[in-house]
Write a structure and sequence with these properties.
The protein is an alpha+beta fold. The chain has a domain at 222-372: Thiolase/Chalcone synthase (Peroxisomal Thiolase, Chain A, domain 1), CATH 3.40.47.10. Helix content is 32%, strand content 22%. The chain has a nine-stranded mixed beta sheet, with helices on both faces. Strands 2-3 form a two-stranded antiparallel sheet. Helix 5 (94-110) packs across helix 6 and helix 8 (263-284) runs parallel beside helix 9. The structure holds octanoyl-coenzyme A. The site of octanoyl-coenzyme A (CO8) has 30 residues, from helix 3 and helix 8.
């Protein structure tokens, strides 16, 4: 059975933080901390916090800015995290609100009404609560019949979500599925750590996945020719936040309860895994890397993407071949490759082929080989 992506949507928070603003705030925080612990630093009991720098961030990552749901809290050196008011149970949650806005765009693009949707999958790195599922809340908000569930494969949540939707359609369980990625990365990023404070941003993407027979003639559709998934356990990107945290009061607020990573190791270990996975997928489908019109790669680090593309193509990739959005958005976890696909696909003609690929925590890698069909 042929399954297609027939629409995408993107919700972008209204507030953006430049590297200059971020570094000024972090350096103020570091200075305050160093003053507070001056005696321990002088007596050698404590290392002073080092300053962050715009030049380092741009060179090491390619990131220039990021969108966040709350800029004031993040930039306040006395707060250093977003300030997001708790909501009563009868008000739509933040992730539901973001999801609905992105979903409406995706449905409009696919020329599909909510009544035609059979299922909702919310797939993202961090869910704001344990239950009920955010997906079921979005299902209610959009008045969709059928079923909904949440899933999490960190940075590969979107590609694994699309793969899961495709399986449900092929099995006859559903004909049209909404897959949504509300990524509130600012809530679980450690803004007080200069090694990672620049990495993430907030956003929400949505994708409509349909049996091709259901796809509207007006939609620009991409057939999923193949999916390829790979996981390999690693603690090099890890966040121990969870429901058992309060069971050990000694460690409930320790550093490991927010995002942390061994960035260098991640870079070195993931690049060959991605190159191998993509090479194998292309070979299995009788394609060379050069026959792919565009790679919508995971958007974590510009140097990582450039290296992957050099290994695949044997030359540096152009923006047309491997588009970049991380300069504006930073790493938005699972949403990154979907933003790239959302923004850069209008020039595809029938039978043009593209690859949408994610990689990150887990480790988890997911790749979709897509062919434009209308
Ligand atoms: N300013 C100035 N200097 C700095 C800063 C800074 N902000 N930060 C670090 N430095 C210093 C370091 O201390 C180090 O100093 P020294 O040489 O004296 O030890 C030096 O700069 C070099 O540091 P690194 O070796 O760490 O620098 P890299 O060139 O490796 O760049 C990166 C760091 C950018 C982190 C890079 O390694 C990278 O991007 N790696 C890939 C990581 C990646 O792709 N991770 C994927 C994570 S995303 C994911 O899976 C989703 C998780 C779920 C979402 C979580 C949301 C919060």
């Amino acid at each position: 059975m042929s399954v297609v992506l027939s629409g995408t949507g993107l919700y972008v928070p209204s507030q953006s933080i430049s590297n200059e603003e971020l570094v000024a705030s972090y350096n103020q925080y570091a200075s305050l901390e160093n003053q507070k612990h001056r005696e321990d630093i002088v007596s050698g009991l404590r290392e002073p916090l080092q300053v962050s720098s715009v030049e380092f961030i741009e060179k090491a990552s390619g990131i220039k800015s990021r969108y966040v749901v709350d800029k004031l809290g993040v930039l306040d050196p006395h707060v250093m995290h977003p300030l997001i008011a708790d909501r009563p149970d009868d008000i739509w949650s933040l992730q539901c609100e973001m999801g609905v806005l992105a979903a409406k765009q995706a449905l409009a693009q696919a020329h599909v009404s909510a009544a035609e949707v059979d299922a909702v999958i919310v797939s993202c790195s961090n869910l704001q609560r344990a239950y009920p599922a955010i997906a079921i809340e979005i299902q209610k908000a959009l008045e969709i019949e059928g079923y909904a569930f949440d899933m999490n494969v960190a940075c590969s949540s979107a590609t694994f979500g699309i793969h899961t939707a495709m399986g449900s359609i092929e099995s006859g369980q559903a004909k049209t599925i909404l897959m949504i990625n509300p990524e509130v990365c600012s809530g679980h990023l450690q803004w007080k750590d200069r090694d990672c404070h620049f990495i993430f941003g907030d956003v929400c993407t949505a994708v409509v996945i349909q049996a091709r027979s259901e796809c509207k003639p007006a939609a620009k559709a991409f057939e999923i020719v193949s999916t390829k998934l790979k996981t390999d356990f690693s603690s090099n990107i890890r966040n121990n936040f969870g429901f058992l945290n309060r069971c050990d009061p000694e460690t409930v607020h320790s550093r490991d309860k927010t995002f942390r990573q061994q960035g260098r190791k991640v870079f070195k270990e993931i690049v060959p895994m991605v190159v191998e996975l993509l090479g194998q997928q292309l070979q299995d489908n009788g394609l060379t890397a050069q026959q792919v019109k565009r790679y919508w790669l995971h958007q974590a680090n510009i140097n990582m993407n450039q290296l992957i593309m050099r290994k695949l193509l044997g030359k540096s990739a152009t923006q047309e071949e491997a588009c970049v959005i991380l300069d504006e958005f930073a790493n938005t976890s699972s949403a990154g490759s979907i933003i790239a696909f959302h923004r850069f696909r209008e020039d595809f003609g029938v039978n043009d082929v593209g690859v949408l690929c994610s990689f990150g925590a887990g480790y988890s890698l997911g790749s979709l080989l897509l062919r434009c069909v209308s």
